[in-house]
Amino acid sequence: MTTIGIIGAGHIGSQIARTAIETGHDVVISNSRGPETLADLIAELGEHATAATAEQAGAAGDIVVVTVPLKNYREVPVAPLAGKIVIDTNNYYPERDGQIAELDSESATVSGLLQAHLPQSTVVKAFNHIYFGAITDDALPEGTTNRRALAIAGDDDNAKALVAALQNQFGFDTVDAGTLDESWRFERDQPAYVVRQNAVELRANLALAERNKNSQ
Question: Containing H/E element for 20?
């Protein structure tokens, strides 16, 4: 059993929490408003879920999921996540996040920004190109024909293997899209973004991606 720390209890964070518990993990989850505001979610999730601060969720997690609006990524606590694998679910939405010069100029990627903020952590991009409800609705057993596939990207092969194993437990095949520098390939406005696709289709969509300005 693994403890998954979740920083951000919105649509993606709460759905990952549900799936994690269903597949045998414990969850420590936080939001920006304080643990007391998560009482209803914790009651739904049951005894394997705990509400916490972001610092506590980061410290408790064997793996930590960061799923906060990109504009708030600098508020993610650094020290509790040191030495840990951090799953980044984010995408860049200028209408929500404001303009971010490094992303507009394509001199950085979304997950690269988080990795720079967390220099002692190992960031893997995952769960960013699936509608939150599909995390449970589209899950299928390993080996199922036409099983949905999700992409990952990261700079550490061992970390990516662990995240791929987690996605398999959650009900999805995995396609490795490369390093964090390639993580834009399955972000907003790209062919692989928020469409149901099997592994063959996902590889094709990743190859079709074009990095045009403001396409993240």
Answer: helix 11-22
Spatial distance between the Cα atoms of 191 and 184, rounded to a whole number of angstroms: 11
The amino acid at residue 21 is I
Confidence of residue 139 (pLDDT cuts 50, 70, 90): very high
CATH code for the domain in which residue 172 is found: 3.40.50.720
pLDDT reported for residue 184: 97
* pLDDT one-digit tens code per residue, 124-138: 999 999 999 999 999
d(CA 181, CA 65): 19
Domain range for 8 is: 3-208
Whether 16 and 131 have beta carbons less than 8 Å apart is answered as no
Domain contains 201: yes
Find where tokens 């950085």 sit.
108
Is 216 inside a domain boundary? no
Residue 138 neighbours by CB under 8 Å, 6+ apart = 130, 148, 171, 172, 196
Residue range 168-194, pLDDT digits in tens:
999 999 999 999 999 999 999 999 999
- Cβ neighbours for 54, distance < 8 A, ≥ 6 positions apart: 7, 30, 32, 75, 76, 77
Question: Is 215 inside a domain boundary?
Answer: no
